[in-house]
Here is the input.
Amino acid sequence: MAKTKRYRQKNTFMYIMLAPYLLFLFFFGIVPLIMAFFEIPAKSLTNPNGGFDAFNIVLHDFRFGTAAKHVAGFMAIFVPLMIVFVIGMALMLDMNTAKWKKYLRMAYIVPASVSGAVAVLMWYVILEPTLSPFKWIINLFGVKEATQIWQTQNLVYILAFMAFFAMAGNWILIQYGSLQSISTEILEAARVDGCSAFQLAVRIKLPLIRKYVIYMGVLVFAGGLQIFVEPQLLTTSVYQGIANAWSFDQLSYTLAFTSGDFGGASALSIMLLIPSLLGALVVIYKTDMFEDAKRVRGQKIEAEG
Here is the structure.
């Protein structure tokens, strides 16, 4: 009885700690989603008859295909670059046994503090041939004017690298933390069996953190799909019109606040939510991300019973 009472007390504390998150999820996640769903049938200039035809109207908008092309190109560079580079750097950091490794970990997280508006301004200076500290390298490629770089067709590459350098540091440390969860007994057994450092990383460590890699891939994909701040700041502050409705989120913003089509903006937002939800389902049901917690909880219940 005493063990059961302690178990219930632990559950009570858990629910108390979880309550703030659930409140924020409800008021800033579920409620806006419900409001967006009921906003879709509203009449507008683009959907004068109202109804759920707003989905079809958005899909046939002349800007939708262009935005899809831009985001697809951005994701094709950004997502693989993030996953390969982050996992590679995390594995190398885990192999390093030097005492100054802690300072290296700190260095990885510094670029993550430069994001949004600051990142746009920083990259503008870096790529501006007359201002850049690397202008001698830029000049080697025959670039003398900023307009040679800052063109709409180049934004796929510029924004991909901008987002990569802003996010990679955080994810390197997260994946390094996942590597620390691997049992030292497994690693020692592999070394005894003759595993080299490379084999240990690829055949032992990487499979053991597979679920964390998938989790990272889903979040990186969802974050990249919703790119908004960087192209919006570029088109409104740096080079007027260079990235009008460049991404899906920008198109949604334009529909709502330029065209007054809140139904279309809501429809597009819900369409963007679907891939993120599918990714979350992959993490939940196709990996063992949550199986360990269930197993531990079941073992505790059996032990207390």
